[in-house]
Amino acid sequence: MSSRIYTPAPRDLSKWETAHWLQASRDLMNQSPKVLLNALTDFANTRDTPDALLTFLRKHPGLMGFPYCDPTVAEMALSFANGMKKWSASERDSKLFQDALIQTPFFHFRDRLRQVWSGGDTQGLVLAELLSLFDQPETNSEEDPEGLIHLRWRFLPDWRKGSLQYRPRSAFERACILLLENSSRAKVCARAECSSPFFIAGRVTQRYCGSDCADAMQDQWKTKWWREKGNVWRKQRKAKGRAKAKGAKR
User: Fold this and answer.
1) Where are the domains of the chain?
2) pTM for the full model?
3) What is the mean pLDDT of the chain?
4) Which residues contact residue 37 at a Cβ distance below 8 angstroms, ignoring those fewer than 6 apart?
């Protein structure tokens, strides 16, 4: 594992070129599983706004190695986000704006990731797509035969470990395989109002992303209990108190 510190992108991403995005992806790919899973978590929790997209790009520029996408997808996402920021508030609420968001690779793969994370990928086909396990159409090109091997052979045998090893080509793919390895702890916060519901739990039985949501749900439960059963509980308590007082007089 590389000891190089993973540095977020500068605030002004317009000065970056394709080489910068590719280097960011290589830097992120060599980070610890915790760093990669944190980046993937932020990706899953990115909201449907240009500002949220820009915030993510600045924080995790190296996670944009989506399967079957051109390396310049991050630059396209940046251009898209900057362009969308010029839309008025009413335009952003329109169906046209939402359709434009959905059609971008960034939000397309975010939604696919959310489907996997929430347990909706029952056959594993969506995760297979995210891991680039589906073969690209073969071509008649005779150039770079080793490149074809790297493209099509995602699993290679490891004699020392006695198993097949997945070979990720990008930080995004490595993060997705780490998510698979930690699938039992990949959770969606049980609080419906949570703004960042996708998280990696510290334990398998954890239901909430953190203490804020857990406390909020506890408060909601108490309020509901008092509304539905509070009067009955008060009456029973008063009745017990009167009976105890009568017993003491005797």
Assistant:
1) 13-134+148-208, 210-250
2) 0.76
3) 78
4) 175, 178, 179, 182, 200
